[in-house]
Amino acid sequence: MKQTDSPDEQYTGFSAEERAAMKEHAQEQKKATKRRGSRAEKEAAAARDVLAKIAEMPEADRVIAERVHEIVTTAAPDLKAKLWYGMPAYARDGKVLCHFQSAQKFGTRYSTLGFSDEASLDDGAMWPVAYALKELTPADEQRIAALVGAAVR
């Protein structure tokens, strides 16, 4: 968000995509608090929401998202799938460790796999926390599995 003092600059604020993501997050929170049932039932419903969101993606994003979902849930079966700002995310104790952002989400040229500060990926004084994904090779899939494994340690 940007505010300006100069009459030559226009206030840009949040983009339409950012506002939509915030609204999605509010709806996700409202839906999660209204869900009834056991913890396992709520987690299963959240996982179904993630799979439904992935199914809505354009084909190129969907193929990558499906593969990332499979890799994450295999590499770290204790993580719980949930929607986070309208994106598939994977959490431990309610805190998101990683998420998949489709290229379509904010009109970017590639999807990303991002890790939060909850992930244990620290490597010196500087390390990457998001990775661009245009396609997935077997080597990329192994790297994602290793990153997710490191994130949950």
Provide structural commentary.
There is one protein chain. By secondary structure, the chain is an alpha+beta fold. Helix content is 44%, strand content 18%. It is built from four helices and five strands; from the N terminus they run αααβββββα. It has helices at residues 16-34, 39-56, 59-75, 138-151; strands at 80-84, 87-92, 95-101, 111-115, 130-133. It has a five-stranded antiparallel sheet with strand order 1-2-3-4-5. Strand 1 (80-84) and strand 2 (87-92) form a beta hairpin. The radius of gyration is 17 Å and the shape is globular.
Short description:
By secondary structure, the protein is of the alpha+beta class. Helices cover 44% and strands 18% of the residues.
**What amount of the residues lies in strands?**
15-25%
End-to-end distance: 35 Å
In this structure, how is the largest beta sheet organized?
A: 5 strands, antiparallel
Number of strands: 5
Ranges where pLDDT stays below 50 over 5 or more residues in a row are none
Structural class label = alpha+beta
- The portion of residues assigned to helices is 40-55%
Number of helices: 4
Shape estimate: globular
